[in-house]
Amino acid sequence: MNTLSFGLLSLISHSPLSGYDLMLKIQPFWPAKHSQIYPLLATLEKNHQVTYELVSQSDKPDKKVYSITSKGIESLRNWLTEPASDPVMRDELMLKAYCISLVDPATSRKLFNARLEHYRNKISRFEDRISQIRAASGLQENGFPPHNSPNFGAFILLHKALMSSRTNIQWCEWVLSAIPPEEI
Amino acid sequence: MNTLSFGLLSLISHSPLSGYDLMLKIQPFWPAKHSQIYPLLATLEKNHQVTYELVSQSDKPDKKVYSITSKGIESLRNWLTEPASDPVMRDELMLKAYCISLVDPATSRKLFNARLEHYRNKISRFEDRISQIRAASGLQENGFPPHNSPNFGAFILLHKALMSSRTNIQWCEWVLSAIPPEEI
DNA sequence: TGCTTTTATGTATTTATTTACATATTTCAA
DNA sequence: TTGAAATATGTAAATAAATACATAAAAGCA
Fold first, then answer.
1. S-S: A5 plus which of A1, A28, A126, A139, CB 3.0-4.6 Å?
2. Does the CB of A177 fall within 7 Å of any strand D atom?
3. What is the pLDDT of residues A24-36, one digit of tens each?
4. Is A3 near strand D, with its CB below 7 A from some atom of it?
């Protein structure tokens, strides 16, 4: 069973989800296309880690909603006792940054401004969802959901995403401050 | 030509490097095994983006040292004008964090303490290398290498790595502060 | 009515990446 | 002196991931 399979199990452990919903929801943590997800769900079902229910929808196409089994929960508990492998980050901008001195300041600025936009767009979504969890859990300023609450995981992940985005924005702005302004 | 090929070109554009050196050097930006790198270098050479020189060593095995050609530089300049694709981050700890409420605080702590160690180990190496560049370029406190200097790229990348590591450490410590202490 | 988008699920093919297999030299430690 | 580790280069096989192919229902628009 590969990491993505455990990731799907992890999401399903919170609440039943369709393959399509899983595909959308797992993107921030472990990007994957639906073509990778559907076959893994079929395998998880074959191994009795999950079950699914066909749900007819009148407004949208029908779907399969997957739920975790007790065997699936057991798999997750076991997986959690093993150390997490190192994170893998692949960012084309890093490779471009290394040889950025080959091009003019205008070309350079474009790259970092685009990335700045990328992170700014993400940040507002994270802030909204943190507020939602705070409200739903009745938390004050610096409060956490309890460690044994399912909200704990989502809460700390949103904070990580928010902190990382803010740091990346700071970095982009710092880099842009060192690129000479375009002359007119 | 894929992203890794451009990454190799980008590193070679600073100074000639062997396949083995490239493999070691590219890890922080675009992890890759030597088995992926050697065939790409052969293709780059076939397309006249790089040339290599056989270098005999008395203390170590002989090696092929690759240098960039003017055609290679042209490829890089062209590539730099295209927008950088979105960064891809895959972190098993994020998937584990999402269902962390399934396990006891002790198991939970182990995961985050291990990750804390991971980032602390990285941070000291980055600080050392930033000092090296500062000294070599004769820079003061808040100074940058000039935008058209090859050092500019390495300098901003090291700062990004340092800033990200610090943020990740803060996040791990913040999470650990919310996990109940182990009872004895 | 025909066109696009979103939701929904799947398979086939190609590309990217990892792991394993293979070889060779030097240094260092048990 | 045998074995491990680092340096060095390569290929083969397996797995992971992306792209493309395929179908379909509903909604909204022109």
1. A1
2. no
3. 999 999 999 999 9
4. yes
